[in-house]
Each structure stands twice: as structure tokens, then as C-alpha cells.
């Protein structure tokens, strides 16, 4: 299998962490792919018409995208504990947490684009809306942190861990840990996982 990959994408990081956690890493070839928002990449578009990563190409040439679909497919290929619970409340909780983490990442990516504009180009209403959405989500996660800590590591935990790490990576000035001590404690445990340590985003990476 072939995975369109970048060392800085939080959505790609989800997939790579799952590969490491499940022992499937040797079955996937990582292909360095640049997916700039305003510059479609023909090499990626051959496998994902939206020119977005991650995109996984199966042995028969069929593509899969995006990270929730890829992660659930990969989770079907190993014999260990499942990252996607099969049924019942545990499944819906895991999927809800994944959706919240992915949604936060989508907001953060747009927010970062807005923050990179000159002050004259920025829309204050957008900046305020993005800040409110993220702060509200963090407050909800602070309330949920004890439940996160008391449940097994699944796709929800994995996604939220990547999301909070992206805040550290691109929004360090927000100091999200202030006012969220339980969530910060849970995230510290996530960061100690070997899979997380091996996938820390790095602007200097090739």
C-alpha cells in the first residue's frame, strides 16, 4: 500500500500513529506529498481528486481518503485490540470524539490561514468565531478528561491527542493548558506513547 504523507499534517499523523500502534507500518510505503491549499498537486490528484492528504492507495490501485476512512480500513487488517469499537455506546463515543478532534483541526487549519494574513486582510469576526469554537471545545474536553483517562485508547483518543498536539505546534501562543489541567494531564500521557513521540511534527523535516 502507498500513503501520501507529510510530516506536518495532523490528519496524516493520525494514520501513521495507528500504523505504529497496530504493527502495520511495514505494509505501507510513505510517499512524501505536498498538498498546498491553493496549489493542487497532480501527483496527489491522481489518487484523490481533491488534492488532499492523507490518501491511501490499496494494492489493487483503489484509493481511500480521508483519515477516518483510512484509519478504519487499516483497523480491519490487524489482530490486536480494535481502535474502532464494533458496536454499542463505545463505538458512538469513539466516533464522536474523532469527529470533534477532526472538526477542531479543520477550524484550526482555516484559523491559521487567517492569522497568516496581514492585519488589514484579516476578518475580526472570523478570528473571534474560530477562537470561540476552539475555546468551547476545549472546555467540553476538560469536562470529559476523566472519562478519557479511564477508557481504553481508541480512535477518539488518538484523534484528540493529535488535535491538542497541533495546538502546541501551530498555536503555542494560545496556552490551551491554562484552565484545562485535567485535559493537559491526559494529553501528557498521550505524548509519552512511543507512536506519538515518533511522529512529532517538525518544520525542519524533509
UniProtKB/TrEMBL annotation:
SUPFAM superfamilies: GST C-terminal domain-like, Thioredoxin-like
Coiled coil: none
Pfam families registered for this protein in UniProt: GST_C_2 (PF13410), GST_N_2 (PF13409)
Domain GST N-terminal: 1-82
Matches recorded under PANTHER family: GLUTATHIONE S-TRANSFERASE OMEGA, PTHR43968
This protein's name: Glutathione S-transferase
Amino acid at each position: 500500500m502507498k500513503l501520501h504523507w507529510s510530516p506536518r499534517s495532523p490528519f496524516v499523523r493520525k494514520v501513521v500513529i495507528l500504523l505504529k500502534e497496530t504493527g502495520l507500518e511495514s505494509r505501507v510505503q510513505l510517499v512524501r506529498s505536498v498538498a498546498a491549499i491553493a496549489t493542487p498537486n497532480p501527483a496527489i490528484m491522481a489518487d484523490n481528486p481533491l488534492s488532499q492528504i492523507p490518501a491511501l492507495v490499496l494494492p489493487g490501485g483503489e484509493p481511500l481518503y480521508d483519515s477516518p476512512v483510512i484509519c478504519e480500513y487499516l483497523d480491519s487488517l490487524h489482530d490486536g485490540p480494535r481502535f474502532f469499537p464494533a458496536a454499542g455506546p463505545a463505538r458512538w463515543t469513539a466516533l464522536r470524539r474523532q469527529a470533534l478532534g477532526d472538526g477542531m483541526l479543520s477550524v484550526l487549519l482555516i484559523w491559521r490561514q487567517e492569522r497568516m494574513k496581514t492585519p488589514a486582510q484579516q476578518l475580526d469576526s472570523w478570528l473571534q468565531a474560530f477562537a470561540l469554537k476552539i475555546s468551547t471545545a476545549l472546555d467540553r474536553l476538560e469536562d470529559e478528561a476523566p472519562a478519557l483517562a479511564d477508557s481504553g485508547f481508541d480512535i477518539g483518543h488518538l484523534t484528540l491527542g493529535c488535535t491538542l498536539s497541533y495546538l502546541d505546534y501551530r498555536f503555542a501562543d494560545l496556552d490551551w493548558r491554562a484552565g484545562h489541567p485535567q485535559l493537559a494531564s491526559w494529553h501528557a500521557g498521550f505524548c509519552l506513547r512511543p507512536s506519538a513521540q515518533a511522529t512529532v511534527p517538525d518544520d525542519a523535516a524533509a
